[in-house]
Design a protein that fits this description.
Helix content is 17%, strand content 37%. The radius of gyration is 15 Å and the shape is globular. The protein has 140 residues and is an alpha+beta fold. Strands 1, 2, 3, 4, 5, 6, 7 and 8 form an eight-stranded mixed beta sheet that branches.
Amino acid sequence: MDDSGPIRVAIAVVMDRGRILISRRGRSDHLAGYWEFPGGKCLSGEPPEQCVIREVREEVGLDIQPEQELQAIHFSYPHRHIVLFPFICRPVSGVACPLDVAEVRWILPDDLRSYRFPPANDSLIAELIDRFGQGPPSAA
């Protein structure tokens, strides 16, 4: 395991009209083809809130406003330890498009489990479905 300390990653749960923005990693990225919430590695000394704004603009062309910081997620992969800093955000301007990702989609919270995300996102996905999902359709 790398002894240089955890990799700090800020991620945006961009919410708009009940949908969440997700992006798919490119072929040359670690965990290529997996879906994720837009974001990326914090620069040295960069606060996660500033990082998430910068990364979302670079990756998908959206200007966002972080509205709520969620609990940090610590996760260890075989060769790296990461700390995810998730933020609930709203779009301010721009249109989501794949600038530095393979693809972008707006999906309903209940559909998050239909996409393959990195394991570090499991607890966040469960929280988002619980908080924003509609649950199973009610019997009429």
